[in-house]
Amino acid sequence: MKLLNTQSGLTYVEMVVVVSLYTLILLAVGNAISSFYKYNAYAFAQSSQVAEARRGINRMVRDIREMTYGDEGSYPLLVMEEHRIGFYSDIDRDNSVEYVEFDLSSTTLEKNVYNATGSPPTYSTSTVAETHILSTYVQNLPQATSTFVYYDVNGLEATATSTVTDIRYVEVRVIVNVDPIRDPGEFMLRSSSALRNLKDNL
After folding, report:
1. Which of 9, 39, 166, 173 has an alpha carbon 20 to 30 Å from 200's alpha carbon atom?
2. Is pLDDT larger for residue 6 or for residue 72?
3. What pTM was estimated for this model as a whole?
């Protein structure tokens, strides 16, 4: 009688195919997990920067709203540029008016504070009393979008011939994106303030 060989197993070719498929599945799952964590990290970073920018804009608008005459009698609004605004305001409520500048430099929005010194008081921008970072990853300059927009008493946007004494209303725009080449993309924050101490009906 002949004995039948009942042993079975994978051939070399079958083994290679199985290992290859298993490797491809592992790579696909690994890439999916990696992409998931990278996206979540980006989304978290983006939301954190948006929250930081929102807090910065709230402080900015509060200070702009309270602008007033300098301790030496200077007009409240001194600088009205596309990405920089300078004005006098008692930001710390100590009955002494500070000179404040908000300036967008590259992708960082800063607040610089200068105190009045001497008697009679004078302001010097050579010595900064305080510097605060209000927002980072600001994309206004790359997107050619004004950070500050100025309006006159009639609600018309300021022109090249407008002067600081014409301005009664300031709009703030901040575009935030931690990585401009990735989704979900830019997030624009807007806020505005009437200059209450310059109202014509006071």
Report:
1. 173
2. 72
3. 0.76
